[in-house]
Amino acid sequence: MRWVLKLLVIGLALGVSAxxxxxxxxxxxxxxxxxxxxxxxxxxxxVGLNGTGDGLRNAPFTEEIMSNILExxxxxxxxxxxxxxNVAAVFVTAELHPFARAGxxxxxxxSAIGDAKSLLGGTLVMTPLNAADGQIxxxxxxxxxxxxxxxxxxxxxxxxxxxxxxxxxSGARVEREVEFDFVNLSTLRLALREPDFTTAGRVEAAxxxxxxxxxxxxxDAGTVRLDIGATRMPSPAHALGRIxxxxxxxxxxxxxxxxxxxxxxxxxxxxxxxxxxxxxxxxTLRIQEAPVAVQPNPxxxxxxxxxxxxxxxxEEEEGTGLAEVPGGxxxxxxxxxxxxxxxxxRDMIDILKSIKAAGALHAEFVVR
Length: 368
Prior knowledge:
alpha+beta, four-stranded antiparallel beta sheet, 3 domains, single chain, six-stranded antiparallel beta barrel, flat
């Protein structure tokens, strides 16, 4: 078995050719300083539910907000008690996109916070959405599109998806704009989503090649500063529009990510393994109980006694033996060889952990 694994690894190493590194647009690698969204949140009420709303005894805040809404509409409900089942209190969340202008529309997500069973078919009543500064930036209203369904009978019920959460496409209208003096910026920082000195250096070189002069400067592994004035473009928007589609070849850290629950293994092409030997086998322990009943002689005064009898065996299944992996082999080739030998994903994860513990796996090892 040892030579089989070794031949598989060597054969894969000879048959796999190095693929050309792919390039990525600059806009997919960096975030432009100041060009960002803002989170919004609001507390509202969904009405028109088919008896699947909040139980007001368990969710008194629903009755409170319903009373406030009715009073704002001129309906006096002071001292009144009502127990409708077609309303539900919800949190409404949204993201205010960068450069969103007053009057534009954004999507919102609606989530029940009480004991409502479903928001299917409900309508969100006008709900103001606040940002972190406490100001109202948008107002949401519309019909909720729930993400699931509920069916009930007298003795059974079935739930598919999450009916207590839904979305309203274009359900909020922007009422206030975020003030940001983008036009008068003299410098702009590009923040890499995955900080890396090599990638940042390539971004700097590519921008300088585009404009023919030193307008970009790498500050650290995650930041490149862009001198807007040196680009001689009419505005920062023109400068970003010219550089955001520049193709960059990014560098990535060697990383292996495993999920023990699902047995998933994800790895990069730069993961390498030093010379190491691997042995994998299983032990099987079996214990069998076979009690024996011993009866007394006929016409005697004895009693029946149960005598316990156990049988324990320890068996070692034939494993893959001691397999030697040559140095410089990529992890994908090793995993392909183990798959060809029928090694289960969970055993493969244990093998990778052991290789990492032995110091032969040269990559960041992430276990989820």
